[in-house]
Amino acid sequence: MKIFAERLKEARLGQGLTQKQLAERVGIARQAIYRQEEGKQIPAVTTLVALAQELNRSMDWFCGLE
């Protein structure tokens, strides 16, 4: 889960987005983005798909498989 947390933050910052902006774009609470970046929460598959699409990354990349 640590690799997902690190990569989520890296991808978000790379796009110049705040946690709030990203949360609004994928339809979740800002607190969820915070918890995911802290490694305290695993996103639902539907959220992972939305994050990957919004941040132009593959789900494999987020999971450390690329």
UniProtKB/TrEMBL annotation:
Gene3D superfamilies: lambda repressor-like DNA-binding domains (1.10.260.40). GO terms for molecular function: DNA binding. PROSITE patterns: HTH_CROC1. Coiled coil: none annotated. Pfam families: HTH_3. Keywords: DNA-binding. Residues 8-62 form the HTH cro/C1-type domain. SMART domains: HTH_XRE (SM00530). PANTHER family: DNA-BIDING PHAGE PROTEIN, TRACRIPTIONAL REGULATORY PROTEIN-RELATED-RELATED. This is HTH cro/C1-type domain-containing protein. The lineage of its organism: Bacteria, Pseudomonadati, Pseudomonadota, Betaproteobacteria, Burkholderiales.
